[in-house]
Amino acid sequence: MARLLSKPSAPSISSSRGNNNTNNNANNNNSKFMSMQNILSHLLFGCCCTYLGLILGMNFHTSSSSSSSSSSIQECPCLGNTYYGGSEARTRRQQQQQGAASNYVESSLGEGGGGTSSFSSFSSSRKFPRSLDNMFVDYATVPREDFNRHLEIGVPFDKTIQGAEDVLVLYTNQKSLPSNSHNSSLFKLHSEQAFENCHSVKVILQEPTKKRRSQQCIAIVPQWESYYVHKFMRLPRQKLSSGVDYQNPLRYVSRSHTDDGKFASVPMLSIHTHAYYKVLMEYLSNLDRVVHDLQRILRVQKKQIHGPDQSNAFIVMVCNLGQSELLHNFVCNARAKGIDLSRVIVFATDEATHNLCKGLGINAYYDKDIFGEIPENAAKGYGDKIFVKMMMAKVFCVHLVLSCGYDVLFQDVDVVMFKNPLAFFASDEVAEWDMMFQDDGARSVRYQPYSPNTGFYYVRNSPITMYFFGVLLRMGDLVASTKSHQAALSALLNEFASWKGLRIKTWRMGDENPFPGGVEYHRHMDYMRALVDGKVNPYIFHMSWTTNKDNKKLFLEQLGEWYLREDTGACSSPLDCCLAKPNITCHYKDKPSKIPCKSSPNIDKRGKSFWV
Ligand SMILES: *[C@@H]1O[C@H](CO)[C@@H](O)[C@H](O)[C@H]1NC(C)=O
Ligand SMILES: *[C@@H]1O[C@H](CO)[C@@H](O)[C@H](O)[C@H]1NC(C)=O
Prior knowledge:
The protein is α/β, with parallel strands linked by helices.
């Protein structure tokens, strides 16, 4: 595409730039002008290529797409006579194209210039071919930050990067155009203005183009309405494929398919589904009894809560003996900081953990039928009933507390608190959102687009979230096949957002993240320096992105968040094991630490020292 544009296909490139200078918007600087020219050119070429694709598809099968379009550029109907009403407009369009070409050449050569030209976008001229009259009449742009302030989806909103600064708005008929569209520019409009005459806005998220990444095209098809997007790829049908190849025709694939042919498969009936049916049956046949029990426990617990009580939430955790050291540290850590834990309820999956909680003065619930018999090393029996049960314990406990009528702040045991986040979740500031997540930071396909970390999230009690967890708890076979409930939950979020209007919010990792975790610890050293220096003020820290339990402890130790005595066997009680001050110990110099750890070894092969 860019290669085509750079071809000086029209004469008098240098002189054409100053044409069409009427009605300059004073704010229109040269770079904007160029980017808009490019956007329009992209649209034109998109239309052109679709046409070409159809023609070519009828005649031959597929060939290299880039070579075919370059050889046929002159014949594109969108740029020819059919496009414009009159010869005057045609001349003007040709001049504009020349302008686009010349600007492209100049910018690609790095010769910025003090040109004064501006691209007139006034809707008096036709923007799309007549064959699209009932689809699109014009377009505008809105700065994406401004767009997100007014029409926030709730995804962890990326930082704005150069060349992907604006939202492209397409108008489907004259009535939807902004009121003053006939006499002013439609570029860089405020959201209110751009959408003032829109009854509804259909929003599509599109990742900015990356160099050497997938060559993606977008098709908008005149057809009965749909709020789903579909995906075709040039992938062979064999399961173990080598990836996209132009030899292959485009075929329908799942959204999880990647360029190299990987995709997420479905759970297997005999392994995952049958194993889960048994677990689900057990859960459902005990549900009434357990909810009844739990309701009584939580009512008593709620009465014991002192101080201002604007929250309707319980902090829900689930823990087995293997992870109990982390839970122990969480409690000692919060106590040392004076954070109130009277709203915590721990779902123990064994008796020993239940007893530990009692010893720590933490409310806990243990039910043999639903959570019991989960051995410490259950993870080894992939696909079996015990394993599914363990995976689903994290879903069951949220479903149970919701069933009792409360909001839920779910958190893993590898979270430490800096201050109690419940007041934040109860504030008006976040009243919009039904579910709020920590940003996982992993931008993999299976977590698109909310990137939810399922180790720290808030659920507001409502019919829609109740239904959400009612559905999620029936997806245990998928949870078993993906070995975590993160992918299942993430997929269901998409469905519920689209289908039921569920409002989901994830705060973006880094910078001002109120809920930082493993992605900051391992990737955002600047953020971690600010954290260590007390220059940022988050609510929690989640030692995610670290699968090994022992490493979690080492990292928390050097971060100054480990409040558990080493010789726990010598404590007279679980609370006696708690330290008043953290045991700050260096382990790795290439991981964030509260104190300089310059003489410690690296943990990563090419890790750089955190302290310079
Ligand atoms: C555009 O037209 C409207 C209505 O015709 C008028 O009120 C407004 O002042 C015009 N704006 C400019 C910049 O000419
Ligand atoms: C602090 O941690 C180090 C390393 O894990 C350990 O050797 C030491 O005994 C700990 N100190 C206390 C008071 O637990």
